[in-house]
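From the methods appendix. Each design record in this collection lists the tokenized structure first, followed by the designed amino acid sequence. Records were kept in a plain field format so they could be parsed without special tools. The example shown here is representative of the layout used throughout.

RECORD:
FOLD TOKENS (151 positions):
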């Protein structure tokens, strides 16, 4: 696992593109694990602050309970359909997997909110290639580094 700051130091251009996809919209989708191990999908907001990837949520949410019990998570950026006339112009979508660790109570506003920092295991950015007859999948894994696949 790596902090967002460590990942961004290794792959600054890639990190900025992924951060841009998360910054383009407010709401994203996060998967956590329920007590029985089944997945839970929730809407979430992400914040990049002082080199950290942060998740803030109202106190007592089910996803906060999930993360306290099992810190594994996946976050998918908001996405829109590629242009019908120019699919290669689509910015793509991003996915981050990792583990959340809870920040101390009262460490961030608003008071009473639950906040988690995410340590990153994998980052993936998928977009339509140019020409638009394939996908370009860029991925980075902690300990492996970055690779690009075309399908």
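DESIGN:
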């Amino acid at each position: 696992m790596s902090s967002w700051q460590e990942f961004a130091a290794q792959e600054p251009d890639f990190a900025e593109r992924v951060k841009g996809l998360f910054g383009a919209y407010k709401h994203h989708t996060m998967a956590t694990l329920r007590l029985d191990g089944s997945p839970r999908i929730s809407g979430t907001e992400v914040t990049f602050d002082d080199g950290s990837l942060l998740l803030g949520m109202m106190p007592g949410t089910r996803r906060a309970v999930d993360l306290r019990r099992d810190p594994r998570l996946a976050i998918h950026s908001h996405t829109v359909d590629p242009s019908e006339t120019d699919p290669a112009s689509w910015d793509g979508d991003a996915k981050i997997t990792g583990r959340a660790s809870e920040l101390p109570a009262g460490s961030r506003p608003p008071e009473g909110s639950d906040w988690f920092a995410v340590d990153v295991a994998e980052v993936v950015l998928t977009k339509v290639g140019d020409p638009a007859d394939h996908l370009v999948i860029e991925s980075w894994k902690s300990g492996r580094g970055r690779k690009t696949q075309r399908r």
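APPENDIX NOTE: The first helix runs from residue 4 to 10.
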